[in-house]
Amino acid sequence: MTTPSDTPDITEQMREIGEAAKAAALTLTTATTEAKNRALTGAAQALRRNQNRILSENAKDMAYGDDKGLSAAMLDRLALDEDRIETMARGLDDIAELPDPVGAVTDAWDRPNGLEIERRRTPLGVIGVIYESRPNVTADAGALCLKAGNAAILRGGSESFHSSGAILECLVEGLRESGLPETTIQRVPTRDRAAVGAMLTMTDHIDVIVPRGGKSLIERVSAESRVPLFKHLEGICHTYVTGDAEPAMAESVVLNAKMRRTGICGATETLLMDRAALPMLGRIASALMEAGCEVRADAEAMAAAGDLGARMTEAADADWDTEYLDSIISVRTVDGLDAAVRHIAEHGSSHTEAIITEDAATAEAFLNNVDSAIVMVNASTQFADGGEFGMGAEIGISTGKLHARGPVGLEQLTSMKYVVRGTGQCRP
Q1: Of 105, 133, 135, 134, which is closest to residue 120 (Cα–Cα)?
Q2: What is the pLDDT of residues 388-402, one digit of tens each?
Q3: Could you give phi then psi for residue 371, rounded to 5 degrees?
Q4: Which CATH fold topology does 237-383 show?
């Protein structure tokens, strides 16, 4: 593997990017909400004006991805069209409408000695974002970092190199119009993987890194980074159907959770069927198969599905630990809530889990006992998204437990500082 020390040009380039980001972050600490919002709305307008150029650059990336043999699901993540560009633009407008977290007082109290203490939100500083394939992350991550008062260094996947560059130009156009430093949002201008290695050691320039991608990327970043991380691990998400679930709801929710977009981290990968729910597996499996989904099931589930069982593949042990990001779902029979919770604890990635049930007590027990970043009742796991949570957008879903967990939005991209006011007090 090429290391930064073997490539002094990249090391020097990254140092220059880091120094520019630190300078921009210092300016942003006093930037007004109005200036940040002007940059965001200006960038949204630039995305709309430059739609044709973005699509042209995306066509280059799609050809590159096709040559690399990317799966259909990965190509879908990479693809842009008019609707997806408009969604990006609306996302920037939505972030501009959100309250500015910087300077917000989250708590305040007085001490018996007369000291007045406040806890305020403050920017993290410089955030490095390392991500794969999806070019819309360039807009989402850059905008969220900006609104939270942070500078951003973005390193997108090699597949989205041209698309991300065109999107970044729109973000910089908005910064220029608002009078904020154009280096507030920067992109690593190379496909060379040595740049990732350099980012992971830039402790003098980057305050936190957000890795967003597949298992191999997360493992590399976790092993090599000397910079603190917000981990976004793979999405091995589960939907658990209980015996008292309403069959039509179970069918529609599972179908959406798996097949709406198979290549996103919130897609359900494993369907857990309570033994008492097996009579409704046939209709659920039929809907999945009609939508083009391959079903891999245990022997009991295959038998319960009747004639459809012959069209299923018997699941292997590896299936319970696989993030397919494709039109494939594994189905496992479990005997009760406790067994479902144990399966999720053993095989899940702490991302998103859902239960389909009509029993309020069972639902509450599921919410309390499943230790994942997001838990849902009677809803598709595809709602695991900061935008769907009303957060404007997200920089990722953090599956760790420190600082941020779940969708990483504006508040999660800030830290805290304590402001203490006195009248001459001295500690005895």
Answers
A1: 105
A2: 887 767 777 887 777
A3: -100, 75
A4: Aldehyde Dehydrogenase; Chain A, domain 2 (3.40.309)
